Amino acid sequence: MKNIGGILEISQQVRFMSRNMYTLRRLPLLIVLLCISLVGSSNSIARGIPHREVTADANDFALREALASGNLEEFDRYLSLGADPTEWLDDSQYGWVFCAATETGREEFLGLLIERSYDVNFHQVDIGSAISLPLACAVRFDNLRALELLVEAGADPSIAPSSLIPAQVPKSVMSSATIVGKYDLAVWLFDKANYSDEQLKSDISMLEKFPVDESAPGNVYRLMLADKLREKGYEVNPWTRNQASDK
Fold first, then answer.
1. Which site from 48, 86, 185, 230 is most exposed, i.e. has the minimal number of CB atoms within 10 Å?
2. Same-domain status, 28 and 67
3. Is 124 a domain residue?
4. Burial of 125 by CB count in 10 Å (0-12 exposed, 13-18 middle, 19+ buried)?
């Protein structure tokens, strides 16, 4: 898991080079290397998981191993030894234990972290939005039960996952669900926080502009989300294939 970010980056670079080998053969070596470097930087930004200095100790890594093996007793023991579930371990979606504990099937571990009073709104402020908050991680893992546990414990879905660039989307955890098409989670999160006008208008923009498969089962939740926004007084015209064809 520690090297998954690097493996993905190398894989993406190889695919890039394969598609463009004819052109690359014509370039001087230094330009080729520059291209590879730029692609790597671009992919890193797209993933939103930058390289960070790891200061975690052996107990922090052992805590993640206990989680991965499903050993709740060992997990509890390492917490007692001072392991920190918010410590950054590597550049992956399992890069911090509180995030990894929101994956489906790990609700007992998540419950233990909540019981131990770890901050359910802990914010990894200098990483990408998809794994910056426990709630955002639960959305990434598509785990409604984890969302329920976190919100019941006081997690706030109105927190903007990205603090690096305040103007960028998603502007809330609900927006995180909307932007990846997990409309059922967005509907569930809708009345779990007091969202600002700016946040709700951002969601409306996504509903109106993002093409979808209107025959997919999840489309019913997209329309439900639009109805909830209308109930708050907003005008919402969700994207449809007919509208797109008329333009």
1. 230
2. no
3. yes
4. exposed
pTM of the model: 0.77
Residue whose structure tokens are 């926080």: 193
* CA-to-CA dists, residue 237 to 209, 218, 219, 230, angstroms: 9, 17, 14, 10
Structure tokens at 234: 């907003």
CATH number (domain holding residue 146):
1.25.40.20
Which pLDDT tens digit goes with each residue over 5-18?
Answer: 444 344 444 343 34
- The predicted pLDDT at position 182 comes to 96
Is residue 127 one of the residues assigned to a domain? yes
Q: How far apart are CA 55 and CA 69, in angstroms?
A: 23
Report how far apart, in Å, the C-alpha atoms of 101 and of each of 68, 76, 116, 148 are: 9, 13, 14, 14
Same domain, yes or no: 36 and 83: no
Output the pLDDT for position 67: 98
pLDDT value at residue 165: 59
Closest CA to 205 of 168, 231, 242: 168
Domain encompassing residue 15: 9-41
pLDDT over threshold 50, residue 33: no
User: Within the chain, what is the greatest distance between any pair of CA atoms?
Assistant: 63
